[in-house]
Automatic annotation (TrEMBL):
Domain (Carbohydrate kinase FGGY N-terminal) ranges: 15-240
Family of the protein in this entry: Belongs to the FGGY kinase family.
Species in which this protein is naturally found: Succinivibrio faecicola
Protein name as it appears in the record: FGGY-family carbohydrate kinase
Entry superkingdom: Bacteria
InterPro entries (UniProt xref): ATPase_NBD, FGGY_C, FGGY_Carb_Kinase, FGGY_N
Keywords, sorted A to Z: Kinase, Transferase
Length: 533
């Protein structure tokens, strides 16, 4: 405790802050062993306004300040110390989306998150033009859709970025972005470690035809790689993060990254033939490639690690939201029945019942946890749905096994494509909310993907810890190690984890469930057509 107290007072710890879909989290780490020493968090929720998923600007700054104040409180309670300085700082956030500003830094349109799927036309045109997959949630899809829809603000755009890039800019004055997050804005050339010049020229031709008064490269943030100096913490930035004035400016910031990049760091999955699956509100698998995929796949994103290695990303918009809603229903019943049970125990009880006693194929129960549209299955809007055969054994075990299975349905379809491309994975690591209950989510995923799944003891720290490690890398990499070497030799040298192998009966059962999942997609699409507000 006294050693940590001294490190905090000397300003030697690194700080990582990540804006997740439902929680903003701050983690302060020890510079000697990279372990978290204090944390703070703030719960928040996106809003569906004017048909778009968004967060208000006030939500961003109010949430950030409350999250940081909770971290300061944790430091004070644990170490009797005042947090006044840090060695380095990193900002991460959910990837993609659209935040646009004019030349005077005025915010021009509501923040559009990754969750929106209103950009189908733009994404299809750009994919056809580039012959490179441009997903609906990428920032360039949002910009082009705004142009196609003739939104008033588009001619005044002088800069657009992601949520992480925006917060970083306000803290440093630097319009930059980590290469992993930048790869969710516009295609990256892994050789030049910058935006793809050919596609920039093609998009500029589109801009000229639309009479836009700018070129794309004038609007995009500068691309940086892990370890690069991304600017210093300004006085204005320090006041934005800590309105009390106690936190001092002057520390280095690492390049702001997306949650995919921090997930790779948090699971030590930045080397070739490693992969990780982040399973929370959304779910995505990241696999570091030995070589580029042989052809275009609309279900696969081409992105990068935080140091610029090629990555195949399979992203599904929906994972645990509906699963959590079902748990919430049972929590509501317990409340009505005046039965006391904390949420952790309730999750554990329901999940373990599903794993231990649920039919391997869910006995004809089918579920779609689609809170929002799903690009992999071409479903434009969300309609959570449950269906079953009249003779299905409709019990808790089968219901929750179906809900666990369906949280992995779309991602499984994408992973099947990587398998067809002969992509090799030596190690797959899981992290995120699905793995909070020990062994359950891990076992279900191992069966679903028919591959061993590791969960490290550090993986529970999540992306905020990952961006704190990247912040530390920016100031502690005195040996000029690559990011992979730095993680192996320093951060994960004593890491402990557990591997679960797939169970054949479980894998066979999931495959039967997936057959129904694909066959019954027509029901889900019909629900979108018929079920309106």
């Amino acid at each position: 405790m006294s050693d940590i107290n001294s490190l905090i007072l000397q300003g030697k710890c690194s700080l990582g802050i990540e804006f997740g879909s439902t929680r903003i989290k701050a983690v302060l780490i020890d510079p000697t062993n990279f372990a978290p020493v204090a944390q703070g968090s703030h719960e928040w929720e996106n809003r569906l306004e004017n048909g778009l998923w968004t967060y208000h600007i006030d939500d961003i700054w109010g949430g950030l300040q409350h999250c940081y104040s909770e971290l300061v409180k944790d430091v004070k309670e644990k170490y009797k110390a005042d947090l006044k300085a840090v060695a380095s700082l990193g900002i991460s956030a959910m990837m993609h989306g659209y935040m646009a500003f004019d030349k005077d830094d005025n915010h021009l349109a509501q923040f559009r998150t990754w969750r929106n799927s209103n950009t189908t036309k733009a994404a299809e045109i750009l994919t056809d033009t580039f012959q490179f997959n441009i997903p609906e949630r990428w920032s360039i899809s949002h910009l082009y859709q705004c142009i196609l829809d003739k939104e008033e603000h588009v001619k005044n755009v002088a800069f657009f970025t992601t949520l992480a890039g925006y917060v970083h800019y306000k803290l440093t004055g630097q319009k930059v972005l980590g290469i992993g997050d930048a790869a969710g804005m516009f295609p990256i050339d892994s050789y030049t470690k910058n935006y793809n010049e050919k596609y920039l020229m093609q998009f500029n031709e589109i801009l000229a035809k639309e009479n836009m008064p700018y070129k794309l490269e004038e609007l995009l943030p500068k691309v940086l790689c892990a370890g690069d100096n991304a600017g210093t913490f300004t006085e204005q930035g320090a006041k934005l993060l800590d309105p009390t004035g106690n936190l001092q400016p002057g520390c280095i910031l690492c390049p702001p990254e997306g949650d995919a990049g921090t997930g790779m760091v948090a699971t030590n999955s930045v080397a070739v033939r490693t992969g990780n699956v982040s399973a929370g509100t959304s779910i995505f698998a990241m696999v570091v490639l030995e070589k580029a995929l042989s052809k275009l796949h609309r279900e696969i994103d081409n992105v990068t690690t935080p140091d610029g290695m090629q990555v195949a990303m399979v992203h599904a918009n929906n994972c645990t939201s509906d699963l959590n809603a079902w748990v919430g229903l049972f929590a509501d019943f317990l409340k009505v029945a005046n039965i006391k049970m904390d949420m952790n125990t309730l999750f554990k009880t329901l999940y373990e019942e599903a794993l231990n006693n649920g039919a391997k194929d869910c006995d004809g129960i089918i579920s779609y946890g689609y809170f929002s549209g799903e690009n992999i299955t071409s479903v434009p809007e969300g309609r959570p749905l449950l269906a079953r055969m009249p003779n299905s054994n409709f019990n808790i075990a089968n219901l929750f096994r179906a809900n666990l299975y369906t949280s992995l349905g779309a991602i499984k379809l994408g992973m099947n494509i990587l398998k067809s491309e002969q992509v090799k994975i030596d190690k797959l690591l899981g992290h995120g909310g699905l793995f909070k209950t020990p062994r359950v989510g891990q076992s279900i995923m191992a069966d679903a993907l028919n591959t061993p799944v590791w969960v490290m003891t550090t993986a529970g720290e999540g992306g905020a810890w990952g961006i704190a490690v990247l912040a530390a890398y920016s100031v502690q990499n005195t040996k000029n190690e690559s990011l992979s070497e730095f993680l192996d030799n320093n951060v994960f040298k004593d890491a402990v984890g557990e591997k679960i192998d797939p169970d054949k009966a479980g894998s066979d059962g999931f495959d039967k469930f997936l057959e129904r999942y694909v066959l019954c997609l027509g029901i889900e699409k019909q629900a979108v057509s018929c079920l309106k507000r």
